[in-house]
Design goal:
The chain has about 120 residues and is of the alpha/beta class. It is about 20% helix and about 45% strand. The protein contains 1 helix and 9 strands, in the order H-E-E-E-E-E-E-E-E-E. The longest helix has 25 residues, at about 1-25. The radius of gyration is 22 Å and the shape is elongated.
């Protein structure tokens, strides 16, 4: 009976080690978000305004411009990652990148600098 218990305990430990190694191989969890451009009290903003990812994560952002007023195009840019998109009302865009740099990076509207931006936070 002790032998069976020892074998079972050994197999459980082995499973834990293998499972842990596979989790590390998989890398950080992917980030998938929808970010919507809205107008609030006269300001155009992207909501949510903060994107958080771990270093190495694949980030996929669906961008939707829902601002009813003119102009009908708004920018979404993360200069540190060389991302710059123009999002036209009614024509969603998808941005994909890997979070390779740790830090806090500005998200801006490259077309209208007065619009409220956001931030990309990449954790180690």
């Amino acid at each position: 009976m002790r032998t069976v218990a020892s074998v079972v305990a050994g197999l459980l430990c082995l499973g834990a080690v293998v499972g842990s190694a596979r989790a590390e191989e998989a890398g950080p969890e992917a980030v998938n978000m929808t970010i919507v451009n809205v107008e609030y009290e006269g300001s155009k903003i992207w909501v949510p305004s903060t994107v958080t990812a771990k270093k190495g994560a694949k980030v996929t952002l669906k961008l939707i411009n829902s601002v009813p007023s003119e102009p009908n195009q708004h920018g979404f840019a993360i200069p540190a990652y060389k991302i710059a998109e123009v999002v036209t009302r009614g024509e969603p865009k998808t941005v994909e990148f890997t979070a390779t740099k740790v830090g806090v990076f500005s998200i801006i509207c490259q077309l209208h600098p007065a619009h409220v931006g956001g931030q990309l936070v990449v954790l180690p």
